[in-house]
Amino acid sequence: MKILYGVQGTGNGHLSRARVMAKAMKKQGVDVDFFFSGREKDQFFDMDCFGQYQVQPGLTFATKNGRVALLETAKINAWFGFFKDVNNLDLSHYDLVLNDFEPLTAWAAKRQGVPSIGISHQAALNFSVPKIADSWFNDAILNYFAPVDLALGCHWHHFGFPILPPFVEVNKAEQLLSHQVLVYLPFESPESIVDFLTSFSDYTFLVYHAGQSPRGLPAHIKWHHFDREGFKAAMASCGGVIGNAGFELASEALTLGKKLLIKPLLGQFEQQSNVAALELLGAAECMRSQLEPAVLRRWLKGSMPAPINYPEVGDALVSWLLKGNWREPEALCHSLWSQVNLPLSWQKKSG
């Protein structure tokens, strides 16, 4: 079986899931090529596990001050080039297209009649899981941005539906630094992050951000450009995580038993739906529209939750794919969730 795996490169969550799957596929000898879109090739990092991968522009979104900028999103995407790339992508030598919300390979597979399976958090939002109010626009994004024959969603809880647990790869902590906080707010400006954290000098904040650190950075704020291994080490040892409401970041925090403070990217349906789920589960505190020091002060005094033992989803999914019976994912989902000891307060949160 020859597989093309299309991955949305906007944000790092899709890439984290793809790394888990790449290792599982290599372990089981799967013949797979990786295809990425959504950011420039020189902006990808830590890509060795993907071999000789391809990159195309695809589609992405623009942000400004912690919010999706719809007009800029429309301007930066080369729509004519996208449709040309769909038509030019030859899938004749592939038996299956796996897709993590990547539109170019999804539409090429649909156009050429190649079987396609989606593996994404977005696919879980097709079920009646906690989310913000449905709208025709959100439904259109979920159904038509990267259409597939079978969509397998993943979430922190199954909510009574055939949904996979998260794909998580984390480091175990060698030591716990309870007064050290990991901060990943990629859509906020560096100046606003520093203003938000400056008053809390009893804690050390490890900020990972693509922007340059502002001048006169207080000693308790440590500024880092993104480094995956350093980030994973900081995640393992920290006492808490402050981030946007991306799925993979929260998944890693829940797996390691880290308290979580989130501020969603405004105008982004998935992140706002993640807030609804995390609040229903009592798994995070939220800042709605801006960075709020009062919320941070209360959150810093909170206790750490127990870790959640999510299983090796990638290994199980690859084994299931190789069997070729792709129309019955329910048994796979049930088997994986039977290995998870969900918190007592979560166990009645089903659909």
Write the layout of secondary structure elements.
Layout: E1 2-8, H1 13-27, E2 31-37, E3 54-56, E4 63-64, E5 67-68, H2 70-76, H3 79-88, E6 96-100, H4 103-112, E7 116-120, H5 136-144, E8 150-153, E9 177-184, H6 190-197, E10 204-208, E11 221-224, H7 228-237, E12 238-243, H8 247-256, E13 259-262, H9 269-281, E14 285-286, H10 293-300, H11 313-323, H12 330-337
Parallel strand pairs: 1-2, 1-6, 2-3, 6-7, 7-8, 9-10, 9-12, 10-11, 12-13, 13-14
Antiparallel strand pairs: 4-5
What does this structure look like?
With 351 residues, this protein is an alpha/beta fold. Helices cover 34% and strands 18% of the residues. It contains twelve helices and 14 strands. The protein has helices at 13-27, 70-76, 79-88, 103-112, 136-144, 190-197, 228-237, 247-256, 269-281, 293-300, 313-323, 330-337, and strands at residues 2-8, 31-37, 54-56, 63-64, 67-68, 96-100, 116-120, 150-153, 177-184, 204-208, 221-224, 238-243, 259-262, 285-286. The strands form three sheets. The protein has a six-stranded parallel sheet with strand order 3-2-1-6-7-8, with helices on both faces. Helix 3 packs across helix 4.
